[in-house]
Amino acid sequence: MPAAPRPVVPSAAEAALWGIFGCLLVPGVLLATGKEVEVAAFAAGGLAVIVLAAYVALRVWGAKLSDIHEGDGVG
Known about the structure:
Layout: H1 12-32, H2 37-72
């Protein structure tokens, strides 16, 4: 019986790109719906902080996970 294919896991950089897309999209939608520029800027800044924190966490987690798997011969 053939082995099941491994699921495709996006990289931290790919996840960050989607986060950046959201950081641009959300303020644009807020401005298009009539919100003040300050509200859109605050939303963009808050989202940027969250995306940066998630990117760093994914990089650290990925590095630790690869270190763990180096010792057991898996991927």
